[in-house]
Design a protein that fits this description.
CATH topology: Aldehyde Dehydrogenase, Chain A, domain 1
Protein name: Betaine-aldehyde dehydrogenase
Largest sheet: 5 strands, parallel
Order of helices and strands: EEEEEHHHHHEEEHEHEHEHE
Shape: globular
CATH class: Alpha Beta
InterPro entries: Ald_DH/histidinol_DH (IPR016161), Ald_DH_N (IPR016162), Aldehyde_DH_dom (IPR015590)
CATH superfamily: Aldehyde Dehydrogenase, Chain A, domain 1
Strand content: 15-25%
Keywords: Oxidoreductase
Domain Aldehyde dehydrogenase: 13-252
CATH architecture: 3-Layer(aba) Sandwich
Family: Belongs to the aldehyde dehydrogenase family.
Distance between the termini: 37 Å
Number of helices: 9
Number of domains: 1
């Protein structure tokens, strides 16, 4: 098997100068290779997401967002068997657990598709004859940093509400699950209604792209699942730009 998993940036498959082997952790068999994303490619993903926010109707058209989320749910159902197989092979899960993870995804997407069509905001009467209206608007580009242990469902858990809210996204996926990531990217590439640049996904073995997402002033929202120590570091760095965070943190053995 000699599959090369590429990154998905601005609606295109993007290679890199370094290819790293994907390994079955149960047998140490090489199951493919992946393009290890560079910091420059992560930067291009941020630029693509920022451009899509400005030049497409994504942040303004909630019906478009709901349509894309429902298309994504259908696509994940079509690719479920393939995803389960590669997730079990590459991640080391037993198939029952891989199946549990993958089959949760469509419902989460359809739930957020429904939320997208909910009216946001409120109107108040601070004094007779005067009205104050509060509207919710997308903040900008969301950066999503995904762990290796449950990459499919944890990615969707952050991506779906980010898309529903009208943000564009840059997803950093772990290199350990690059072949799984490639199928997810293929799903994104086949969504007929998804505007170019709204979703960007790259895989890396180092933390350069993740650090860029946290440090960049062009990414005002960060979602991260990982260790408490890393979460503290992310919060401290992102606070310089008053970023908003969604953090699921735990403790790794020392």
């Amino acid at each position: 098997m000699n599959r090369l998993a590429k990154n998905w940036i601005n609606g295109e498959w993007v290679d890199s100068h370094q290819h790293i082997q994907s390994i079955n952790p149960a047998t140490y068999e090489v199951i493919g290779q992946y393009a290890n994303a560079t910091v420059e490619q992560a930067q291009s993903a941020i630029l693509a997401a920022k451009t899509a926010l400005k030049k497409t109707d994504w942040k303004r058209d909630r019906r478009l967002r709901a349509k894309v989320l429902n298309e994504m749910a259908d696509a994940f159902e079509r690719y479920a068997d393939e995803l389960i197989e590669i997730l079990a092979t590459e991640n080391g899960k037993i198939k029952a657990e891989a199946s549990f993870e993958v089959t949760m995804v469509p419902a989460k997407l359809r739930y957020n598709a429904a939320l997208t069509l909910t009216e946001y905001g409120r109107a108040l009467e601070p004094k007779p004859g005067s009205y104050s209206m509060v509207l919710r608007e997308p903040m900008g580009v969301s950066g999503i940093i995904v762990p290796w242990n449950s990459p499919v469902v944890l990615m969707i858990r952050s991506l779906a509400p980010a898309l529903a809210a009208g943000t564009t996204t840059v997803i950093k996926m772990p290199g350990q699950t690059a072949q799984t990531n490639a199928i997810i990217s293929r799903i994104f590439s086949e969504l007929p209604s998804l505007p170019q640049g709204v979703i960007n996904l790259f895989s890396e073995s180092t933390g350069g792209g993740s650090r860029l997402l946290v440090e960049s002033p062009d990414v005002p929202v960060i979602s991260f699942t990982g260790s408490t120590a890393t979460g503290k570091a992310i919060s401290a760095t992102g606070a310089q730009h008053l970023k908003r965070f969604g953090l699921e943190l735990g403790v790794k053995p020392q």
